[in-house]
Amino acid sequence: MAGVSEATVSRVFNRVGPIKEETRLKVLKAAEALGYYPNAIAQSFARRKSGNLGVVLPYVPKVHIFSTYYFSEILSGIGEQVRELGYDMLLIFRKPGDDNGYIELFRSQKIDACILLGTTDTPEERKALRALKEANHPFCLVNQHFAGEDFLEVDADHEQGAYEAVKHLLDEGYRRIAFLNGPPGYSNSADRLKGYVRAMTEAGIFNPVDDPDEAIPAQWLETGNYSRTSGYESAFRFARHLDSIDAVFAANDRMGIGLIQGFRELGVLPGRDIAIVGYDDSDGARITDPPLTSVAVPFYRMGALAAKLLLKENADEAVSEFQEGVNHISGHLYQMATRLVVRSSSAGSQA
Amino acid sequence: MAGVSEATVSRVFNRVGPIKEETRLKVLKAAEALGYYPNAIAQSFARRKSGNLGVVLPYVPKVHIFSTYYFSEILSGIGEQVRELGYDMLLIFRKPGDDNGYIELFRSQKIDACILLGTTDTPEERKALRALKEANHPFCLVNQHFAGEDFLEVDADHEQGAYEAVKHLLDEGYRRIAFLNGPPGYSNSADRLKGYVRAMTEAGIFNPVDDPDEAIPAQWLETGNYSRTSGYESAFRFARHLDSIDAVFAANDRMGIGLIQGFRELGVLPGRDIAIVGYDDSDGARITDPPLTSVAVPFYRMGALAAKLLLKENADEAVSEFQEGVNHISGHLYQMATRLVVRSSSAGSQA
């Protein structure tokens, strides 16, 4: 209508580049006649970056999410990078199962990129994440792997971590090793199950089977929800089979600490009457009695790497700054190594 | 220039209310001639709320801030309210001593209101906060009191909390009670000092003096930085005076746990050879050996109240939803009660 190119219109509204006053007025009049203003301006604003990195967290009423070692360490690592790279960090709480408005967060310019924590593998979640990817919105998952997708993911090698934890117990002479896992919707629960079964199968205790679940005697497998309370309660269930259990591998420290407390109450002394190994190497592992053998996961560095991958242009550069312990598995999957930390809760063979 | 009122200009740019097409064009032409557009539009955007509650956190490299009980609990409480009231939470990291751009956060529409955590009482901080108040930007301080100002503050009664901790040790028969405080820039360090001196003075151990510092024998007072390591190191300094010390009150649990570890290494058994009392009642207090007597501070509720006071129109309503434990001290200062939790680290008199 103004007889000018789209680029000229853009230059007028963004006040970019040289423009004849006459052309300028022509564009503005046409825009006014077409009611074009507010959108054009909105778009020009839209192009401004928010300067915010979004972090989506699961919201569960009464759960003090920042007080869990897992989330707090990842957030600290993200925070470090956000600060270094001049961003702020927008925390968004989503109730698990909520209609997740991930795309809306980008559309409304609240965030430039997004890290998703505590996601679980459900059809709805996969659908939402695929939509985000198709719309080219940059996001990264931490500590959760969606097999068969090509999402940007920073994970840890939990299968190997669990394998080494159980191998350690075997090396100490324990053979009757039970496993307290977390909920199956998390890929890292499934990974730990695989590592546990692999070690037990290699040791000749389990028969090689296709489905890891089938390899395990029923009284040796419990499922908690990663809380201390669920570990505490499991101690009482395991205690019914103490004649056939001499060690328990817990999928995180909170549950491991709960096990220690439960067993103590029953008069079963951890580190003497039963071996316990946890997972995460949280602060708590150092101060329990006995101190808890655990598997260190570099959550802080995982959070930092995720932020770096999203906020830096060049992924190779982002990874190279981490120097060691990062494996580029395939596509957009980065995996970090874990490390066994032996303490007295698993010392001393009973064999 | 267009011969219309300011309100009309505003209506044109905000597309609010009825407006004659002729007037509209007149305003737009005048605006164009004056180069007025972008600002006007920017202002109209400015009026849109961001939907974000800002939380300013101190940034210290290598410190995993979310992993400290204190910050993580306050953030969890803020998070609960933010979620309930339909906001998101923007975390902003500031290096202590940084030129704090608090006002800029409001001007750039990144946040609607702001909670400041971990501030210290310095002339620069007071100046920045006064400027924020004068500009009518809503903000709230948590766990830090600026005497003589009228800032919105949610604090805990740390003087009473410290008093009760020391009173408990006195009741258990301890008299030679040393104190490991945190840095003096925090009002809550000063409060705890007052509570300690009040209890010791009431018991006739200290002479009544004006300056609490002067009342305390030098070997009974140490200053740490609220880290576990600083508690650990203090144990070795206190240990040189073990003939004149039979109990230590630590200003937080991290330092208390460090003390336990340090004393154990020296062969001095906490709970038997020396009594230890911590402060915060963190998760760690429950799992040390011996479990640590501590003072519970409702950090979670303090964070929640701060968010509520900022995001709800009506302060009385916000407070009334907390039912108990909130005292409206004066002006905009709200104070919550603490609670002593007795465990075996302080049990058994040696008197």
TrEMBL record, chains A, B:
Q: Which UniProt keywords apply?
A: DNA-binding, Repressor, Transcription, Transcription regulation
Q: Which InterPro entries match?
A: HTH_LacI (IPR000843), LacI/GalR-like_sensor (IPR046335), Lambda_DNA-bd_dom_sf (IPR010982), Peripla_BP_I (IPR028082)
Q: Has keyword Repressor?
A: yes
Which GO terms of the molecular function aspect are on file? DNA-binding transcription factor activity; transcription cis-regulatory region binding
Entry keyword Repressor: yes
One matching Pfam family = LacI
Looking at the record, the residues that make up the HTH lacI-type domain are 1-47
UniProt protein name = LacI family transcriptional regulator
